[in-house]
């Protein structure tokens, strides 16, 4: 536990260093330095580190020995099965498989932070203290899907739906729930206003009320996940994790709403010149709504909050929210820059850092079973 808390303190110190020198660490080398310790811990962990790691290990031992195109009894998606077989046929052990998949996850997240974050150190701090990092050591199959989905943002901004869909489809080959990411495309095209935001939240509230009926419909249509109904993922009674996560989602959403983050950036004339504005307006008139980074980040925060409301009936909805909450890595640093008042900005920054750090420590101390990532043990054959 001390190891993870020490890492979070290290990232706080890096942020303080950035503030003192007045320069952000946004080079590729700095991203590598920030993420390398986390990659080593995730890639070289023992099978006892993480709730699902042992299951991945035993599955790899059997599936990796199968012929490349043979049938299998595994319930896992074909993309993940095919990847295990390829790595197994190359003669690599589970450790090699774990290192390769972890490397892909961290390369994708590192690329995303480098390309879109306005404060990489803060992004990595959020990555650790929001326990996304622990997710890479638990539900790594889903994080492979998330890592693939991060490459779709470029196509979403360009409004190239076919390429966007292909990326989402590839992600679904590793975790079928990744298909829910498709909803980001049409909602990102909607010009948000207060009424529409309230409408979306209202729909989420209604879905929360009729949640049981919706889930049964999905199970009947897909003929999958029936076994989940009696599992811990649909056990609501006394589950503080649901309220805990919803509170975090609500705070980030409400701060974005307070700052007017969802509004068009055409009004921010000081940041872009008139020629750029005219070009964007012409492009918008020709193709519809121009999708900016800010629009994507805020829509993702909105969807995360709505899914959190629906998830009041089930902890499994938090798995769905992960596809959108990963954008907090860019949303939170960007959100801070939108706060004009220096005093309010300082309060928000300190509140976010202190709040995430305290929640991180509380979970580590009182709910270690949520992740089972300590005591940390290195992989041994």
TrEMBL record:
Residue intervals passing through the bilayer: 6-22, 29-47, 92-114, 121-144, 164-185, 197-221, 241-261, 295-314, 320-339, 346-366
Q: Give a yes or no for keyword Disulfide bond in this entry.
A: no
Record's keyword annotation contains Oxidoreductase: no
Cleaved signal peptide residues? none
UniProtKB keywords: Membrane, Transmembrane, Transmembrane helix
Matches recorded under InterPro entries: EpsG-like (IPR049458)
Query: What Pfam families does this protein's entry cite?
Result: EpsG (PF14897)
This chain belongs to the protein called EpsG family protein
Organism whose genome encodes this protein: Bacillus salacetis
